Write a sequence for this structure.
């Protein structure tokens, strides 16, 4: 089974019922139940921060954390020093794009693991050549 990278935008949409992509994320989650899902620690940090500060729902952020670590098909990977360096290089190389550093770390992780597919509502994944929501 090919791994799929799960981006912050997917997790936010899945957990925040008011998000414009909530219904789409729920449909996508049905397809992902039998998939190997890869998520980075940066994605987790970004998601809990957004749910806590923008959605203003600490309980929802905790629910997300529990969910991530309870699922057998979700693998959480740490962005270590080597991936941070690759992320910085991606950030420097794409001066015509408005990628966040977390986006760049996701791209670096995906390249390092040869992951082609992402579940995301962020256009940046397709801009850099990954398949977003097509698996």
């Amino acid at each position: 089974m090919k791994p799929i990278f799960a981006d912050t935008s997917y997790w936010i949409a899945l957990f925040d019922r008011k998000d414009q992509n909530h219904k789409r994320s729920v449909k996508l989650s049905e397809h992902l139940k039998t998939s190997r899902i890869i998520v980075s620690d940066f994605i987790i940090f970004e998601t809990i921060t957004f749910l806590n500060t923008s959605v203003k729902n600490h309980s929802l952020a905790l629910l997300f954390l529990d969910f991530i670590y309870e699922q057998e098909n979700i693998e959480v990977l740490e962005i270590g020093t080597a991936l941070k360096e690759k992320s910085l290089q991606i950030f420097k190389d794409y001066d015509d794009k408005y990628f966040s550093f977390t986006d760049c770390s996701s791209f670096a992780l995906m390249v390092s693991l040869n992951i082609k597919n992402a579940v995301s509502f962020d256009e940046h994944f397709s801009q850099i050549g990954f398949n977003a929501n097509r698996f």
Observations:
- The chain has one domain: 3-132.
- The radius of gyration is 14 Å.
- The chain has a mean pLDDT of 97.
